[in-house]
Amino acid sequence: MRYSGFRVIKEALTGHKGWQPAWREPEPKAQYDIVIIGGGGHGLATAHYLAKVHGIRNVAVIEKGWIGGGNVGRNTTIIRSNYLLDGNEPFYEMSLKLWEGLEQDLNYNAMVSQRGIMNLIHTDAQRDAFVRRGNAMILNGADAEYLDLAQIKKEYPFLNFDDARFPIKGGLAQRRGGTVRHDAVAWGYARSADSHGVDIIQNCEVTGFRIENGTCLGVETSRGFIGAGKVASCVAGSSGHLMAKAGMRLPIESHVLQAFVSEGLKPLIPGVITFGAGHFYVSQSDKGGLVFGGDIDGYNSYAQRGNLPVLEDVCEGGMAIMPMIGRARVLRMWGGIMDMSMDGSPIIDRTHIDGLYFNGGWCYGGFKATPASGFTYAHLLARDVPHPTAAAYRFDRFAKGRMIDEKGMGNQPNLH
Fold first, then answer.
1. Which of 32, 195, 207, 243 is the most exposed place for a label (fewest CB within 10 A)?
2. Is the Cβ–Cβ distance between 145 and 138 less than 8 Å?
3. Tens of pLDDT along 122-165?
4. Is the model's pLDDT at 415 over the cut of 90?
5. Which of 18, 13, 14 is nearest to 1 (CA)?
């Protein structure tokens, strides 16, 4: 079934009796060409592009829970491509371009809203760094705009311009950035992949890998063995736990990242705003709630919940630039499990085990990378060579000293 305005009108007039399930609930087959472990945004996007771009449709996406129950439904929905380094900026710009055509590609309303993102500048040194970043963005085909103090006051008059400790001196804007409805991304990719013949198997946990003579033959699951010509791991914060079942130790740690939403407010924030003197980012949802977040909790965990000190720290950052939000009530908070790599950048590569592939280490960048991650991972799985845009995201960069250290924090995942 294709969605359209005419379909909505027809169903409204006929009692909404003609809607079909968005995807099937198939029983797993004994053998697939490719098995993707992880039914989040990246896994579903990979399945979509494998089927639509490469014509590989004998594919299964295995999810231990339900579609949308992991990080893809536990984030602050921001999309952007305001990166600095050559290994990252072209990749995230590719992802932003795919976001711009996503709804037409999937025939699904993902609520892509390019309302813009603005990074506040608070020191002279930070201005230099952000101008450099903006120039790097422009050189890679992205858009970037430096805003002086007068422009910031005009566009964001509600900010605290009288804070002597964190004076606002300007900002770096990317007008094409914005937000996307996170659940809709999972549902849209799942629906499209299913329509191309991909099997989406929920409530099916991988318990091990069947590896013989250095080759992965498939996966052991809670619903029995499933054979595969290729197995693709795509499980975000569970990467270390899963790949240990194949005898691999990854350069990744798992940390909790919390997100928060306030009570509904009248339209206030026009786009996404980030605090440059701390770690705070905020946007306003279509329901009026302020959606915001900050640093990871800093300790290793697989629990999808966080602690109160981080809530306090994040709210303090928000109060520093917008004291008015201090009267708003926080309705709820949730946690996603971040797979923090040693240099803060992801990995999309083959493993040393034939037939076993890995996608992970996305740190804070996982949601915004969803389309490009799926596109380049599908390319790797289909052709066994890295996509040119993701060629830097190899395992061997840690051994060869080719780290993509976007924040300059070295090999400390908790600081990325």
1. 207
2. no
3. 999 999 999 999 999 999 999 999 999 999 999 999 999 998 89
4. no
5. 18
Report the half-sphere exposure of 80 (CA within 13 A, side-chain side): 26
Buried b (16+ CB within 10 A) or exposed e, 3-24: beeeeeeeeeeeeeeeeeebbe
Q: What is the mean pLDDT of residues 175-194?
A: 97
Strands 347-350 and 356-360: antiparallel
Q: Which two tokens stand for residue 158?
A: 């509600």
Distance CA 287, CA 226 (A): 42
**Helix residue spans in 54-180 (DSSP H):** 89-100, 102-106, 124-139, 149-155
Q: What does DSSP assign to residue 240?
A: H
Residue whose tokens read 């094409």: 176
Mean pLDDT of 104-111: 97
Q: Which amino acid is at 287?
A: K
Phi, psi of 291 (to 5 degrees): -105, 120
Tokens of 227: 């054979």
The structure tokens listed for 267 are: 């339209």
pLDDT tens string 297-325: 988 999 888 888 999 999 999 999 999 99
Q: Are 231 and 351 contacting, i.e. CB atoms less than 8 angstroms apart?
A: no
- The pLDDT assigned to 404 comes to 95
pLDDT, mean over the chain: 96
Contact residues for 156 (Cβ-Cβ < 8 A; gap 6+): 118, 270, 273
Q: Which two tokens stand for residue 37?
A: 């472990």
Which residue is listed with tokens 């849209």?
A: 188
Element housing 27 (H / E): none
